[in-house]
Amino acid sequence: MTDPATAVQIGVTPTRMLMRGLVHRCPVCGGRGVIQRWFSMSERCPTCDLLYERVEGQVIGYIGLNIIVVFTVTFLTLFIGAVIMVPDIQPKLLVAIALVPAAIGPILFLPSSRMMWNAIDLILRPLRPGEVDPRYVVTDPGRDHPTGG
Q: What is the reported pLDDT for 141?
């Protein structure tokens, strides 16, 4: 028997899980205190005990997400800048403007990309029994806590 989708198990929508990640909260319980410092985060959620690196190599996902978002913002900056400058486009000025999101974007988006990738991972791969505190599983709490209490 396969496990139901994580969103069903915890009783929130996938969009809400992603939004929790965007604001540096645990995608399962919405708990705070996940990001300890800008460049480091807890191994587990202090509230629901979710292990954030569910599979080895999961960091590749958040790095990829970070790159995609920063490239998109940088491209949009170049595109909008070029549209505004038509007909007198100044390439050096455009590149200088685009360097701002390209340089600081990866740093600013790092914590959000980490937590959003965890949300994406949970959306794609459902929680397995025992991965989180059973109090946060709403569809079948007895599954993670056989005594039913």
A: 46
CA distances, 7 to each of 12, 23, 66 (Å): 5, 18, 23
Query: Whole-angstrom Cα distance, residue 79 to residue 98?
Result: 10
Is residue 146, in this structure, part of any structural domain at all?
Answer: no
Give domain status of residue 52, yes or no: yes
Measured over all CA atoms, what is the biggest interatomic distance in the chain, rounded to whole angstroms? 72
Read off the amino acid at residue 141: P
- Given a contact cutoff of 8 angstroms between Cβ atoms, the answer to whether 137 and 8 are in contact is no
Reported as a single tens digit per residue, the pLDDT across 101-135 is: 999 999 999 999 999 999 999 999 998 888 998 88
Q: State the CB neighbour count (10 A cutoff) for residue 89.
A: 12
- The model carries a pTM of 0.82
| Residue 148, in any domain of the structure | no
